[in-house]
User: Fold Alanine--tRNA ligase from Deinococcus irradiatisoli.
Amino acid sequence: MTAPLSTAQIREKFLTFFESKQHLRLPSHSTVAPDPTTLFTVAGMQPFKPQFMGAPARFERGESKRVTTAQKCIRVGDIENVGRTRRHLSLFEMMGNFSFGDYFKREAIGWAWEFLTGKSWMNMDPAKMYVTIYDDDDEAFGYWTQDIGLDPSHIHRFGADENFWPADAPLKGPNGPCGPCSEIYYDRGPDYGDDSWADYYETRESARFLEVWNLVFPQYDRQEPQADGTPTLLDLPFKNIDTGMGLERVASVVQDVPDFYSNDIFLPLIEKVAELSGKPYEGEQSVSHRVIAEHVRAVSMTVADGVSLSNTGRGYVIRKILRRASRHAYLLGLREPSIYQLVPLVVRGMGEAYPELVENQKSVEAAIKSEEERFLKTLESGIQRLDALLSKQEKGSVLSGEDAFTLYGTYGFPVDLTREIAEEYGVSIDEAGFDKALEADQELARAGSKYGKAELFGGADDLLSELPPTQFVGYGQLEAPGVVQAILSGGESLRHLPAGSEAQIALHQTPLYAEGGGEVGDTGRLEWDAEDGSGEARVLDTRKTPQGVFLHRVEVVRGELVVGQKVQAFVDAERQATERHHTATHLLHAALRAVLGSGVQQKGSLVAPERLRFDFSHGAALSVDELAQVEQLVNRWITSNFAVTWRELPIAEARAAGAMALFGEKYGDVVRMVSVEGGVPFGGATVTSRELCGGAHVERTGDIGAFVILSDENVAAGVRRIEALSGELAVRWVRERLTAAARAASTLNTGLDQLPDRVAQLQAQLKAAQQETVTVRRQLTQAQMGGGGSSQTRELGGFKVATARLGGIEAGELRGAADKLLEQSGADLAVVAGDKGLVVKASKDAVARGAHAGQLIGQLAAAGGGKGGGRPDMAQAGVQDPEAALSALDTAF
Ligand code: ATP
Ligand code: MG
Assistant:
């Protein structure tokens, strides 16, 4: 017997195989994506998008319409899958063969088959191969069944969600090359799952049928759908082939090991983790070995490709992965940096194919080590705090959810460690309380800011720090010219942004408001004229960096955006609704303080075109009266139609003028104060509104139109949340509810004013009727059993058995009836049959003598066309024919 092929040998065989089919072998692209559609390279085809669209197939190593590569891929979306399934890695190698307008489906299918099943190649058993194709791809079906001779029962057809690449591209995009695909599966056998290939059609997820290769037939150029949503798929001038074979998956099959972690690449890593920690790879803790072995590869490779661990973009993703691994190292008892010691093994395993690993080994080790040190410090200070907390707790007690949350939320201490350490003290943690605190925190974060993290600033800290703060010119105007200063994507600065691409761009000045102070970022558009025609981009969102650089997330619709381009920027009309909600929020704040007292403090807010949300400190729900007063005060301001003005002034002056500042908010020396120029009377005083605020507001309070409060609810201890609407939205909301109420009134044949009385009256009547039904039923049961007509007692098998046939009573009441029958008749067993159910009860004494209600009812139910079972003293069944069930008693003993 020869040793199975190593992963490196399989990689080499693949490339050699396609070289023998006249393919040019090219090196892997970096894990940093070649285009701005993703952060990382996610597929072998990604570097070749230009060739699929018709660019010349000219490369450093030569010109060829057929190429083959081993591409290292990072799929952020699969990181969560890493622990969940055994077929996903965060870093994996995708083997591919590509045709740019050269060969097509027939060859792609034939060669994939030859490589997988050929004796001198992968030598997989043809009987264990299965494939999927796109719904109407009869062409592929023909090649699979006729050229290859695959049994049609080994083929499933799926829709665009499964068998199109990218998935769902026709409807959802992205724009660019796409097409139907055909996936190849290997049946790993019943040891991996007892599902069949037919089941796979339903489940689409299987540990037994492993997808090893996807053959994609990119023949379309996807463009924006029509206005009515119809997909736009233009035929590409020529047809392409793009395939991806999962190297690690094929290696698991060829080496016949149950999962990645036992193959030749991972085993040495797993063993090293066991050696460093002194914890063998077994039992529940083995998940930690796997996470570390998996994650260290992804971290090493991306860092070797130049990603630095940071708080934004790519660096953030990779830091998260490394921290997850560090946490598991800690769980295995490792208290010193140790993951970096695995790097030499990663280099040994993959360095030959990816020489950048060898070149950067030292800096990769150093980066990982220093991040581990930092994280261990976080852990240590968390542990000290936790120890202090726990030493005060009794054994067997519960650590409050809030304490566990504070550790997590404030100190970044992972909750699973809290759980473990608490266990050592014999203390458990209040999980429900923790979840609640977490949820409340997330809610608050969301209320304060639409996005919790700054991670999407294009990930380009350094580039951003070179840009001057942006001039905001959007107070009171929705349009202004600007010059493009930078185009950022995935941590890099671009010169050009072609149609169909997304990026963050900075302008020297802009009318678009950047998310801040609870107000959402503006959406809008940019238009420009260039020598080669006009261009347009959608602004999908606007945010700003802590240094005040506004970043517009744009998607170019037409033309090309370049640095230095003069554009005209427009804010979408929704901004006016946002302004109404923003001024209304200030008025709501002032009204709440007037009605509830100055204990009210703002805790967060969301000002969006669709609604406003305001969180504030207050201990109790608002009464109906209080809500009405607050709402009325705001509306009084609106009808007074006061001017809303703003000016910039030194912060001390603003405070002296009584402007409300938010607790905990940082303000500069010069602040912007927004004032409503007029007060409204309340409780003998005049209420005014004056706040420090950078947001956009209406010109006069009358512009708000109307104001209505939708809800008042509790979001965290001592924090309430009000949601409200202004303008036409408010009127529409009230109208909808009035219409519903009017409909209800008309159904009940009454006027809207009498509706509450009428409902109360009906409810009282309903309650009385229900009571009566219960009484009547009880009487009926009594009469049926007492009358003796249908109830009788007999001797059967040495037991006194009382039976009763009761009509018109509910299944739920049968048990009570059986209790009563047993008691009244003094029998050993009571059998009661209703119209659809059956209950058997046995006395204690009868059970002691061997009676078994559960077994008896099984036989009776079977005779009555039903099923049932239960305990020795009580059993229940549903039956179709109660008479037949009762007659079966004679033969049951
Ligand atoms: P799955 O449905 O299993 O997630 P996929 O449909 O996402 O796979 P493709 O995008 O078609 O996979 O990628 C081509 C091939 O790459 C797959 O057939 C598989 O062999 C491999 N592959 C995809 N994702 C991973 C991963 N996370 N880890 C290892 N191999 C993968
Ligand atoms: Mg996938």
